[in-house]
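Field: sequence (string)
Field: structure_tokens (string)

Example rows 1 and 2, in order.
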Amino acid sequence: MGQSSSSRMQKEHTRPSTDSGPTPKPMPPPPPFATAVPVVVGTQIPALDLTFTMDCTGSMGSYIRAAKENIEAIVKTLAEKEKFDLRFSLVAYRDHPPQDMTYVTMSFPFTDKLSDMQASLGKLSAQGGGDGPEAVAAGLKATLDQQWRPHAAKVCILIADAPPHGLGESGDGFPNGSPDGVDPLEVLDQMSMNGICIYSVGCQPALSHYRFATDFFIAAAERTNGQAVALGSAALLADVITGGAIEEMDLEKLSAQVQQQVHTLKASEPELEEAEVQQRVWRNLESAGLHTRQMKTSKLRPQHAGLISKAKTLNDARSNLTTVSPTDERSMEDAFSGAPRYGAPRKSKKMGASSAPSAPIYRSMHSRKSRDTKCRDTREDDDTDTMMEELSGRIEENVSLEDASVTLEQVSRIYGKCKNQGLI
């Protein structure tokens, strides 16, 4: 494991030039948040705080088993191979009474010890759940309340197959939102302001049984500048966790450089729109030959995620979603044989069905292909095919980690994260 107590992130304070040469050149004022830009000094070990936030109701048994079976390989990859100063925490959630009478959330604090991680995961089991939507909001709030290190990269892996309460799903036991009053969108904004990004792992095909679940988990990733991934098999969970963490750490290394370029552009051309600023920063980084490692896998595809992403509160999101026509959505489902019907399926009280054994981390990268890919060669170029493929649960079973030029999407995520923290 990395030595979490042996190093601390240092900060560099930018001062205006005091050179008094014969013809001094006017200097622009320093950017207002320049002193907040973190820099890596010497042999600083990159710090990563990683939290699993998991739905632990009856349908999630295979994903809980995958986490248990692969946690040692995950730690070896991130702490030993990548040499991150890694800490791990865990948040389990089910539902509020009377939908579930066991627990709402169960939190395990950050630790850098593998044995503690294994012990925490060992306490999880899949059972309960009632009306379909679950205590996602409470799980996010418990995640926010963990003791995150200020200087560490902060990643939440949100693993779920059901939406939060209050989105307008049929049969929702709490149609106006969680009984504890926690608004998941407000929590997401607080997470983003604290630099916590979410990698949503949507467990298909169950997630697509709901009208708005996929859109919510895409919005959760967008709101925190993370990514939203579609999984059709728990066997790929470890690859997604390590791939997402490694990509995020590569972006963390570029954060100070992006901030510096943004401050320079805004000082010299204050009229520039944000989109143009991001474009210019990306072109600068790309022309400099900067590469990042990028996780390639099936992504959750939005239909109405923007209606949630742009809403300030859950009530606003629910109001926005009332404009969506169920008839139009079902016509897309009916266009593909076997697509699920939207609704709020009752959760199994027993442990979820077994999946294929989880392969050790990295052994499965570049190695799995869906049985359906032989007849879906053009899926990358056809959003409609992709959407219907996900509705039917046919997800390409492949996760790879590729080295490539930094992308505009990555620069936009770095920009959004820095902006939400007040760094630019």
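Row 2 begins here:
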Amino acid sequence: MSQDIELQVRRENARLVIQDSQDPKAVGPIIGYAQEPLLPLADACTPLISIIFNILVYVSIALENTPDDPSDGLTSDESASIYLYTMEWNDGHRSLYSILNETLRTADREHLQPWF
């Protein structure tokens, strides 16, 4: 006897997945950031000093742990920025991804200005 059994496996990382929202106050796309110049990672994170605890220390850690010539074809700053985004802060403070994702969900786009 053969039975088709459908197994639904749900794998998600809560920090990377945000449930779909039917909220009528959902915010639209962000416009204008693509015209901003690309900066070295440390320079790009300088406006975040007042927002993210010890951000420049974590930038240094990310840069130190990134090869000068990453094998993925990215620049070292690009690769370090991914490293920085995925880092957990070990000192009890909220990490970059947590604060950025919360800021992206706010309706007040003015709060995003330091991020680009």
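free_text_note (row 2): The mean pLDDT is 79.
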